[in-house]
Write a structure and sequence with these properties.
This protein is mainly α. It is built from 19 helices and no strands. The radius of gyration is 22 Å and the shape is globular.
Amino acid sequence: MTSTSTSATTEATEATEATDEALTAPAASDAGAGWIVGIVAMCVLLTVANTSMVNVALPAIGDQFGASAARLGWLVTAYSLTFGVATPFYGRLGDRYGLRRMFVIGLCIFAAASLLAGIAPSFPLLLLARALQAFGSAAIPSLGIAMIARVIPSERRGSALGIVATAVGTGSALGPTLGGVLTQFVSWRMVFLVSAALGLLIPFCLRHLPTGRGGQLGPIDWFGGVTLGATIAGLLLGIAGIQREGLGSPLVVGSLSVAVVALGLTIWRQRTALSPFVDRVLVANRRYLLLCVIGFCAMAGNIGTLVVAPFLFKEIHGLSAGETGLALLPSAVAVTLLSRFAGKLADRVNPFMLMTGGFAVSLTTVTIMATLGVGWSAPMFAMLAVGLGVGQAFLNSPLSTTLTRTVPQRVYGSGLGIYNMLFFVGSGFGAALSTAVLDSRRDASTGLPLYTGPSEYAEFSWAFLVAISAFASGLVLLRFAARANPAMPAIEQ
């Protein structure tokens, strides 16, 4: 990146931030900001931990209700579908009716649904409660970050968002262990009842989170919202189908067809509606669009690697599920320990430099996995996976910080909602494509160029190619994003 382009980028970003600061209330005091960041981080930690706790409890749930693996899979699919569809709606409603209001509504739904799941007497009711959990938790990440960005000045925002990223890492690290302990020594129901305790934070939310209505007072384009939701639902259902039934199954073909038709309607509505569901200021913002795709690539590469690693540990090294969780724990700990540090750095140096380093470390780590690591011992491979955690720490916080400095504050909810939606879809895409490649290359005797592992396990080399491609794409797109000036229409100036 040339010094000229970096200077122009910095000036454009500063101009955008200066414009946005004039549209919002004064920054919160240090104590007030601490409450806001703490509440959001705790909510994020518990909702992230809930996801991994439930995954660990699935076998026990199956024993309780006599549910097959296919039926249990719907507990995961229902959550993914509902979360992906609801996220952009919360963002748009938050901009219209107020971020705190929609955040608290989502928190109430999540807590009530967790309680319902914990006492559910039948599998269908548990499935409904799980979907309601996702409907509630969809409000938390994007609206929480939007509130932090609105009250904390730009120069201190990276450190605050680093705390939230630390909460994500902590939830990911604690979830499997806590879920296993609760399921084994108490009951799988405690996994949900512990999550219901998040409702205890509601009074603190009402007291400490920032009030105020959003900046968008026009009508909501519900038709455009429905078509966008159908696009995401079709895409996520198709991705889930690829993992279970293969690319050519009727479920996959039908779901992806619905997604394509709905996408066409969404684009048409975006062009013709007077006030489309996705604000045109976001669509016109080139840097924002690139950052959304970069987030998609980062998550696809990360989850694409993490979903293949357990198969490698089991098939090559014979590790149990618990041992595999311990092997991947150092990577999650790396995210936890480094995320706040990366966020603080994003306040002091060019965050694009940090993200470039994060992608470079992630890409290098996965490339070594695909060429050399397959033949390594389990402890050595586990230590190599720490590089993935380091890379993610230097991606997530700076990426969120840059995003909040790129979009106008009046559309923070919508902008972060769309971003988190694509972030979530990226995880599903990476997992589905990586496992599909792993299955399709089972008979391969050679891996990628420079592959030195055992020939009978060459399919793992090919499976890591998905993550390599995702990280490499993100690294390239990052260069374009750094040079792109956020498009700011006259109405925002």
